[in-house]
Design a protein that fits this description.
Elements: H1 19-23, E1 40-45, E2 51-57, H2 59-62, E3 67-72, H3 73-78, E4 83-85, E5 91-93, E6 99-100, E7 106-112, H4 115-124, E8 126-131, H5 170-183, E9 206-211, E10 216-221, H6 226-236
Antiparallel strand pairs: 1-7, 2-6, 2-8, 3-7, 4-5, 9-10
Length: 237
C-alpha cells in the first residue's frame, strides 16, 4: 500500500512541535525575560469609541513612586514618531493625538521601575474627552452621512473605507465572470463574519533592549509574524 505524501500545503495537516514544552511549563515566555535595569510599561486606554482628547494631565501620575515617565501622542509627535506604518499600506497613530477612533485605543504610555508602579501610574493619568458620534456597523460606516473617523485624511480618503485589497488580473477576471454569467452559474452573496480572536497560552507582551554601543535592538515579543514585526521596526528606525 502506497504511503500518502504530504507537502504541508493549504488544507494539509501539519503536526506542531513546540506545544508540549509550553503546555508543561518548560518553554520560555516573554514574562521570563528579565534584564538588568529593566523598566516596565502600562498603557492608558480610551473608554470611548470616538472622542476628542481635550487634555491629558500627567501630574498625579508622575507623583506615583517608581514612575519614570509618562509619554503622550504629542511627545511622540515632537520626536517625529507619532505615526507608524501598517501592513495594509496605511499609517496608524502609536498613541492617539487629538482624538480616539476606537474603544481602548492607546492614549498614553507609563514607564516605571515595576509593573505595579506602571499600573498605578496609568490609573493616575487624567484624560479629558469630548465624546463624538460613533459607528458600530461596518455597512453604515460607508453611508455618506456617517461620522468621518479619520478627518486628517479626508483629502485622500473622504470615506471610512480604510482598506482596499486587489490581486490578480482584472481583465481575465472580468472575462471569466462574463463567461460564467452567460452560463448562468454565478453566485453572489454578502457574508457577515463576526470578530474572531485566538486564545493563546501567553497574553500579548514585549521586551525591547537597545544596545547603544552596537546600535542593535533586540526584541522579545509574542508574535506569529516575527518577520513582519522586524520589517516594521526597521521602517520606523
Amino acid at each position: 500500500m502506497a504511503t500518502e505524501i504530504f507537502q504541508h500545503g493549504l488544507g494539509e495537516p501539519y503536526k506542531r512541535k513546540e506545544d508540549a514544552r509550553f503546555i508543561h511549563g518548560e518553554g520560555n515566555y516573554v514574562d521570563d525575560v528579565q534584564l538588568k535595569g529593566m523598566l516596565y510599561g502600562d498603557i492608558v486606554r480610551s473608554p470611548y469609541a470616538h472622542a476628542l482628547i481635550k487634555n491629558i494631565d500627567i501630574s498625579e501620575a508622575m507623583k506615583v513612586p517608581g514612575v519614570v515617565a509618562v509619554i503622550t501622542g504629542k511627545d511622540l509627535d515632537a520626536a517625529g514618531l507619532a505615526w507608524m506604518p501598517t501592513l495594509s499600506g496605511d499609517t496608524e497613530a502609536v498613541l492617539a493625538l487629538d482624538r480616539v477612533h476606537f474603544q481602548m485605543q492607546e492614549v498614553a504610555f507609563v514607564v516605571a521601575t515595576s509593573r505595579y508602579a506602571a499600573a498605578d501610574g496609568a490609573a493616575a493619568v487624567d484624560v479629558e474627552y469630548e465624546p463624538l458620534p460613533v459607528v458600530v456597523d461596518p455597512k453604515k460606516a460607508l453611508d455618506p452621512d456617517a461620522p468621518l473617523l479619520r478627518p486628517d485624511k479626508k483629502d485622500k480618503q473622504p470615506t471610512n473605507q480604510i482598506y482596499h485589497w486587489e490581486t490578480g488580473e482584472r481583465t481575465e477576471t472580468d472575462a471569466d465572470f462574463a463567461e460564467a454569467e452567460a452560463s448562468g452559474v454565478v453566485v453572489k452573496q454578502d457574508m457577515f463574519i463576526p470578530r474572531i480572536h485566538p486564545a493563546p497560552i501567553e497574553t500579548c507582551g514585549c521586551v525591547a533592549d537597545y544596545n547603544k554601543t552596537t546600535g542593535k535592538l533586540t526584541v522579545w515579543l509574542t508574535s506569529q509574524a516575527p518577520h513582519a514585526h522586524r520589517t516594521l521596526f526597521a521602517i520606523v528606525a
